[in-house]
Amino acid sequence: MSAPAGLAGSTRRVTIVTPRARVDVALPQQSTFAELVPQLVRLAGATGQAPAEHPGWVLSRLGGAPLALGLTVAAAQVRDGEVLHLTPRERPRGPLLFDDVVDSIASVGESASTTWGPKIARRTGIAAAAVLLLVGGVLVQAATEGSVLAPICTGLLALVLLLAGGALSRAYGDSGAGAAGALAGVGVALLAGMSVLPPNSLFSLKAGPLAAGLAAVTVYGVLAAVTVADRLPFFVAVTGASAIGAIATGIVLVAGVRPMAAAAVTAVLATALAAAAPMLALRLGRLPLPRVPDDMESFRANEQPSLGAEMAGRTTHAQALLTGLLVALGLVVAGSAAVLATGGAWEAGLAALVGSTWLQRSRSYAGRTQRLVLAGFGLLTLLGAGGWLIASGQRVALLTAGLAVVLAAVVCLAYATRVARGVRSPYWSRVLDVAEFLVLLALVPFVAMVAGVYEVVGG
Known about the structure:
mainly alpha, transmembrane, 4 strands, 16 helices, globular, Ubiquitin-like (UB roll), 4-stranded mixed beta sheet
């Protein structure tokens, strides 16, 4: 078997990537992969790394099928500079055969992922405990409503939950239960802060009690992140959202700004800050930023090898922090949209634009969780604008919005069909980029109108 005309030379220099290492080798063109794989496993130090359920190794290109062991390097058209992945072979599993129908049903039932087990029971118990603790805080607040005992009792309960969460996480090593107890204290801290100001009411959405409650949650979130030292993304989301909300409501309270104007500016600022969330997550996750070297000498001088496991852990931590930051900003946007939905047409239009921005911005993220967070909060914001439209009773606008929703559904179905077949169009991607740019530009006149900038400029 002769090599194609474009494959001149006796060897092919390639990079072999294993689950734990990578090596650069030269492969003889006339050697088969059956001859090369054992040698590559030995050179890469992968001997013994294949689990019992996946014996043997295979070579493959990224995303491709395993290369047949009977092929030669030339027949597989391997070129210089290619990256081949050396992975454990998948063992084919034969179909299960049962002699007894009852035995087959029992076996499938026991192996089903929906079976109730210790792991699910533990999570359910922890979730139930967190809900009951929060309900207990509400009952304590209701029992002491209207007196100075309301913030004192709920504040002490929040402090007890904080200390208990830290003890469970650090002393007993149960970070899940500790984080659940501390997260239950977030709601109790909110109630405590809201009842600080007279008349010490149970729950109030006025600027004063709301600002005090969000400030209390901010302080509590920082202390919980330090005390529990686990589930940091949850506390990042809670602390970030409450801090921004406290600042916005504080400005409304102190400067006398209209709530609609504050909500409009806050929603747009949170949308702008979402673009800086990835860089902030890299900083908080202590990931080294890549640098482009001037030449090969500077590249070798500044090369700093790092352990794969350490970098994988840092990367996972940074991704979790990014999710927490996006959730925090999403909560701020959703809260601002709820305020805007109680206003007029300009306010509802701004909420719709912000929701559209978050939906389109989700395309920029490769991570499933981050993309779902942006899309979810974008849809939630659009639902707020849709609620205003339904309440307004404008038939023409409702009909237009209904047709737009149907058109969007058709586009989503077409997108799902094309993605399932692996068909992607750069032209449609460019159209969506232009649409996102136009929506971002439209935010400026809308927020200026809601904030009253035109009235100030026009005198």
